[in-house]
């Protein structure tokens, strides 16, 4: 692509990349042009080589040097750091017409778009895409061949979103620690992208055995997971699911378990944490966070209590200068247009507060109502919490817990560990009693607008019993 711009006579380009060395190494060293690189530490050298030809470290002098050349391309590394200087700005403006007439070009290699208003109409921005799967697979060949270690196609897919340098480091660590190309090592190092951004969080997925019931939702996620498997490229790529229901019914826990089903990292996107005090800061953080998620790929993006995150979207122009509305717009575009394998799992307690645009077809693949647990689900939850807290709650007790949520049954087990079962039972007031009207209203809304996630009352218990003997002690409950 760069060669096309050079043929067209563009005098100033900006290559947007986090990999300056790769940008230089992938240059098309063809045609009539001579390629040189400049940095403020060494000076000017021939591109692709380390020997300095001109000890010109000052950016203004480097720009003036280009004005004296013909058919020359100068890669200026980190020139954006000097664009606040009036001398640099004037030097670029003075050289534009001369470079164009002599077939030369100034290529600024930068990780960010940081162009002064005086130069915005001069520079054309070009994105250098991150390495694709084939390039990352070839990198494994280069590293593994001397050690007689075969490359791993799955490991190469998981490395997408990494720079070539980051992928090489991940592969090298994998070879040192595992003696093969380990997908797990790559995933762990890949999560460093999230930590370094400061905008997102990496959470540990929950084991599926910690989720009591919700067989219909589990079946849905398992069947949709097939679309992400190799060889199933003909299947449409699922985008995500919205879970609505009363508090404590296991919506968040099921989002965490979805990452276990897919075998992907779990990334939490906290909309509230992205909001900033400066004008445009919130929208910029939202764009950056969504860009990181999309480049990360093969992950579950978890958003909790979506209706609170985007509360007041309609009044955003009057209350916060339109920041919430702008963030909401970027989020909707991401839901609709993202192309990487990202599965979005969002929860909401009060669906009536969600903007209607959120539930439009094409944003989420399905909307599920996670209702209060049915009798088979309550029995399953009793088994899980009894084992976890070392108490003995009879399975027959499930019939007395009609209208109790999973979190309330877990609290019952906790209280039973200190007091008697009956005393613990009478000390807890379930939400189905205090929020009866709200829960009934949600059920009426979902009757024709959402799918039911719960296990039916009449489903045989043996068909969906979950064993926990071989799994580590889970940390949550529906």
Automatic annotation (TrEMBL):
Stretches assigned to the AAA+ ATPase domain: 237-374
Similarity comment: Belongs to the AAA ATPase family. Highly divergent.
Regions that span the bilayer: none
Organism superkingdom: Bacteria
InterPro entries referenced in this protein's UniProt entry, alphabetically: AAA+_ATPase (IPR003593), AAA_domain_protein (IPR052381), ATPase_AAA_core (IPR003959), P-loop_NTPase (IPR027417)
GO molecular function terms attached to this record: ATP binding; ATP hydrolysis activity
Keyword rRNA processing included in the entry's annotation: no
Residues covered by region (Disordered): 451-478
Keywords: ATP-binding, Nucleotide-binding
Protein name, UniProt field: Uncharacterized AAA domain-containing protein ycf46
